[in-house]
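Take a careful look at the sequence and tokenised backbone pasted below. I need to know what the token row says about the fold.
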Amino acid sequence: MRIFESLKDAVNEIERDLHEMGTKVWPETYQDKVVVDDPEFETKELQGYSYLITRPEMIKPHFVELGGSLTYLEEETLDRINAAWLNPGESYKERETVWSQFLHNGKFAYTYNERIRIQLEPIVEQLSLNPNTRQAVISIYDFNRDLPNLGGKARIPCSMYYQFLIRKRNGINYLDVIYTMRSCDFYTHFIYDVALADELRKYIAWVLKLEGGHLTHFIGSLHFYKKDCKKEVF
């Protein structure tokens, strides 16, 4: 596992790893769209990529410095922790060119709000009652809903789960998050995925009055598409 001090360090090094060590793949589908005959979706991929960020307080400022939309980050975070059912919600409009193509009859196949909102309260309660627990996991993938959508029938979450751990370092209790994804599109979504995971951690840490801890990220398929890469690496 690679260890980085900051998000900016992670982005720079991971981009280099993808360019130098990524292998070529041509996926059949892109979310719920067939792209097997589209050369712009030729892909470079790293499998089983993992890293840790030791200074999470720098994630949000570096996210903005790297070109991320702060408005989207904040609105999407609020959508995700909202107790009301939201689909599509409003935050997607801040990245409308990215997300509107996946709207069907005015709704998304799923939203993170739908998956997170009913799990949030019991997970916070579990962390409060059992601070050494390893069971504080918010699952995003739902096989009952997602398995029938294999093969591009509908969008399937790229995120699998968030695990929260309270761990003591130098006499201080920190809330760490371990974020596991099946798939991550580096140029379009990576900094957003990282920042949103950290915002969820920060919210739970705030509720529990804990210090912010490490962010660990596991990715099954870390990749980028030819259409998004400005360098000639294919």
The chain has a mean pLDDT of 96. Residues 2-69+133-228 form a domain with the Thymidylate Synthase; Chain A fold (CATH 3.30.572.10). The chain has seven helices and nine strands. The radius of gyration is 18 Å.
